[in-house]
Amino acid sequence: MPENTAWWKESTVYQIYPSSFKDSNGDGIGDIPGIISELDYLQKLGVDLVWLSPILQSPQVDMGYDVSDYYAIHPPYGTMEDVDNLIKGLNARGMKYIMDLVVNHTSDQSRSSKENPYRDWYIWKPPRYDEHGNRQPPNNWIAAFEGSAWEYDEATDEYYLHLFAVEQPDLNWENPKVRAAVHDIMRYWLDKGVSGFRMDVINMISKDQSFPDAPITNPNSPWQHGAQFYCNGPRIHEFLQDLGKILKEYDAFSVGEMPNVYDPAEIVKCVGFDRGELAMAFQFEIMDLDQPAPTKFLPKKWEMSALKEVVSRWQTFMYENDGWNALYLENHDQGRSICRFASPKPEFRAYSAKMLATFLGLQSGTPFVYQGQELGLANVPDSWGIDKFRDLETLNYWKDEILQHHAQDTEYQEMTMKEIRLKSRDNGRLPMQWNKEKFAGFTTGTEPWIGVNEDYEEWNAAAQVGNPDSVFEYWAQILRLRKKYKNLFAYGSYKLIDEPNQDLFAYLRAYGDQTALILTNFTEKEVGWTVPSEVVPILKGGTLLVENRNHDRSISSDGTITVQPLEAFAVLLNKSSV
Ligand code: GLC
């Protein structure tokens, strides 16, 4: 509700993927000094908070989402002093540092013996034996990165749980020592000057302690998706309230990643304003529109009707129930949004990026911009084969699906490669494109850790910053609008209009005397729009806030306007001034 204002409701977050942002020492891996050298860039864009994917010490099985020391920096990224300088540099420019807190699991340390003092920090279970006397895992849960979620440990004859990679054992949150350790980590970093946390798969920390078998949804696999037994589990609110107390003490920001839960009524229990838990959550319904969980690589086309239903349900529910939305279309786990939701064709690409910026950036919630999204960066090129990919999820999928099951089937392999090029997590992990120099200005070294996209000579920051027609300046304009019309865009209501339209997504935001129309065309075609009666006065008497193509919007005698391919605009009507 509008009366519950908060600084984080008026903020925009920018996400940095440290290994791919900027390399300062030529080793081919991005680093913290590299980030510090681009703080002016972030300030020009106009973001308030900067979230870095994990920079802590890690064997990097999952790019730092496998932490081995919560009090040390991964050396290729820099030092503790670099982090202090980063925080200072951000704060000096009016920005804040948001840290990625990965505490559902750690890297695979300390699981050698039953006497190990840290053994109870993880989840261990004895084997089950089938009717033939063969040893089996304690249940049939599947891991996110393929195979059983349980790994057998010969030395102790028990299995440990890993909902992600084998090297990412889940922490046992039932153990009070684990919870206390997490609280200590939070305090340490908050004292250091971080302004809050993005909490990795935080809705998985409370598991159903009977660890039941999951119902069989995939008869072709022995392993089944058991999310209902570990997402938003029995003690989730108790655990989150403990975290919430610390966050409150520091007036800290928080966003929890909450996959597999599609009911806003469940999520609002974690993010409702007076719940004392988290500020907001990443829900996955939009991301899952074209990828049926649990695997993201199966082909599925998203539908406009579904997008409208999902967006409108979350927008309305959170507004009416005092919750808050985290708005995103991209992150380090997703393909680039122009390729998934709009058109990456050269003639449409910039329009697409701006259209999606309008669509997302003016909704109710806190917008998240993922590095390169502000430049309209695209997925990996069509020429990429599997050898170019680095992501463990992608490579495991290839191994399991192709090498084990379809090794001879070249047609199937080609289809799978196409899916991977559309949805692999690596799509968002290619080096940032700074300029048209070698390796896009990302590194001065001889080889970046992952290939640079082929389009960097044209699509880069140097070509866009200061260029009024660029995607970058368009995003900056959207973020300025959010500030200038703070009440309207942070606290205003949301209303979907012309629901049946399968090409256009149109919505209203309203606050007091102000009403804004946001209209976006997701298609590559020109669309004649019969202007709904409630929109007529806005188009006739309103002022233009932003447009991605200069185009006449006067209503013709038959009551329609023509909307150009991938067009987007926002118009504001102030009732008190008419
Ligand atoms: C989250 C992260 C992802 C990581 C996984 C396991 O989904 O965003 O990158 O692989 O958690 O930590």
From TrEMBL:
Gene3D superfamilies: Glycosidases, Golgi alpha-mannosidase II, Oligo-1,6-glucosidase, Domain 2. The keyword Zinc-finger does not apply. GO terms for molecular function: alpha-amylase activity; glucan 1,4-alpha-maltotriohydrolase activity; oligo-1,6-glucosidase activity; sucrose alpha-glucosidase activity. This is Glycosyl hydrolase family 13 catalytic domain-containing protein. Residues 15-429 form the Glycosyl hydrolase family 13 catalytic domain. GO terms for biological process: maltose catabolic process; sucrose catabolic process. Keywords: Maltose metabolism. It holds the Pfam family Alpha-amylase. The keyword Ribosomal protein does not apply. Belongs to the glycosyl hydrolase 13 family. InterPro entries: GH, GH13_cat_dom, Glyco_hydro_b, O16G_dom_2. PANTHER family: ALPHA-AMYLASE FAMILY MEMBER (PTHR10357), GLYCOSYL HYDROLASE FAMILY 13 CATALYTIC DOMAIN-CONTAINING PROTEIN (PTHR10357:SF232).
